[in-house]
Amino acid sequence: AHLARIAAVDEKVHAFLHVDREGALAQARAVDDKRARGEKLGPLAGVPLALKDIFTTKGVPTTVGSKLLEGWIPPYDATLTQRLKAADVIILGKTNMDEFAMGSSTENSAYGPTGNPWDLTRIPGGSGGGSSAALASYQAVLAIGTDTGGSIRQPAAVTGTVGVKPTYGGVSRYGMVAFSSSLDQGGPCARTVLDAALLHEAIAGYDPLDSTSIDAPVPSVVEAARNGNVAGLRVGVVKEFGGEGYQAGVMQRFNESVELLREIGAEIVEISCPSFDLALAAYYLIAPSECSSNLARFDAMRYGLRVGDDGTRSAEDVTALSREAGFGDEVKRRIMLGTYALSSGYYDAYYGSAQKVRTLITRDFEKAFESVDVLISPTTPTTAFPIGERADDPMAMYLADLCTIPSNLAGNAAMSLPCGLAPEDGLPVGLQIIAPAMADDRLYRVGAAVE
Ligand code: GLN
């Protein structure tokens, strides 16, 4: 049914870069066979999922939204891919994304944009717009995203779906193509809080192949999602997120959520996190710096596009020509910014200062969580904007992640879930819930209560 749905609508939506029809049917048959033999089935047996094209899939193309990796067939599965298979999930295919996960609209994909199913002339968010659009257009029941600065939560917000950035280190990064390693975090996307929780437990947990993987039990998120309640919980409203620059309808729905939380038993506290105003600036130094280092591996020698290798050129020239041809504008912008920020003479002023700001932001969170159990804010300042509107204005594009970036810098857990439609444009608004690191279960407990 889902393959038929994809065939019927994805020409318009363009959520998928690759539909693995044969692979999906083979997995489905394998689940049926297991069932017929009376074997124990995985916890998500037979549930169709859309996988962001940033995770390696053995024998199935993985492009990361880039021309540089067009046609590359990974020889191995990411840990997350392996865990999905172990859970007996059916992987329908690989979803569209901003190239190397750099963007907030999926317009930076080398393979063309994805439409927002609510209005195909608008963006589905990014970088994981393909995954969120697949959910919102009922092409998949579950999806996977990655969140470096908001790429799970912001697409969820603008498509009316649920997206969770687990605690940093909660889901393995092995086989997830690196953008900014100290920020990158894979996580679950779904249409309901409980569905997201079921997927969360299937993919989370320690992996010795990822040096920053957390070696501790996974928080009981499914139980929390089944027992949604906020009685006696202290909920902090982040003062810095709201007001000027925020769409009126977004603030209206957010304020209604605050009232709802109060009505169902939460205590609402206003919390100030003064360093959050610097988060965007710090992120756009740290993320490009790490990207400039991570993307150095694309040298046209080991894998991917190779241009100009005609026997007359040096390896350096072939590398340069291939990177020139294979990377898009935003990726080049980040590599140049990052290389500059890390260069001797500028390192302390830029990268060093950004790391100090990162510490201040982490301290703001620590202080806040001394007096509240979770923090809330709108997920994004506006609803989905028209395709093309911010394409030539990187600064306007970067503002889409204003409210999501602090959690990446601090490494804590955060969720976006739908909280109604903005009256002025009828488009979905997202509510963001933030919990301390390793307290991912609180997101689900609160999310299920207000869903
Ligand atoms: N939009 C942000 C960026 O462009 C975040 C991307 C992400 O989370 N992968 O970097």
Structure description:
Belongs to the amidase family. GatA subfamily. The chain has about 450 residues and is of the alpha/beta class. The chain folds into two domains: about 1-280 and about 375-450, Amidase signature (AS) enzymes, CATH 3.90.1300; about 280-350, no CATH class. Helix content is about 40%, strand content about 15%. It has helices at about 1-15, 20-35, 80-85, 130-135, 155-160, 195-205, 220-225, 250-265, 280-295, 315-325, 330-340, 350-370, 395-400, 405-410, 440-450, and strands at about 15-20, 50, 90-95, 140-145, 160-165, 185-190, 235-240, 265-270, 375-380, 415-420, 430-435. Strands 1-3-2-4-6-5-10-11-9-7-8 form an eleven-stranded mixed beta sheet. Helix 9 packs across helix 11 and helix 9 packs across helix 12. Glutamine (GLN) binds near residues 102, 103, 127 and 151.
